[in-house]
């Protein structure tokens, strides 16, 4: 009986191990994944900012080259640039996610500008953003909408 129990345990372990290996990671495409995605909502139809951490498990760097959303009429990739005592936002064509590394799209650096909301959006909502990469991968990523304080 002990031998049969051990065989059953090994068999079940193999089955669950195989299933886990083929289960998709949350918000992942190939070697890329998106984590901690959120939008800083602003009132009165002001443009919102989107933030996310992109992780690349691959052996080659990959560029984020496009962003879009069915909830907003316009989504752009911007970078905050400091020039002495002033800062400005500059639209950029791409941002590189290094091989075996991460790219923080975060306040004070790269960020997504989301403009022209297609419907009422408020803190507590979720909006989907499509992230397009230079290797052809696309991540459909849910972004949690938070208040201006990030709550």
TrEMBL record:
This protein's UniProt keywords: Signal
Family matches, as InterPro entries: LpqE-like, Lxx211020-like, PCuAC_sf
SUPFAM superfamilies: DR1885-like metal-binding protein (SSF110087)
Endpoints of the signal sequence: 1-28
PANTHER family: BLR7088 PROTEIN (PTHR36302), COPPER CHAPERONE PCU(A)C (PTHR36302:SF1)
Protein name according to UniProt: Copper(I)-binding protein
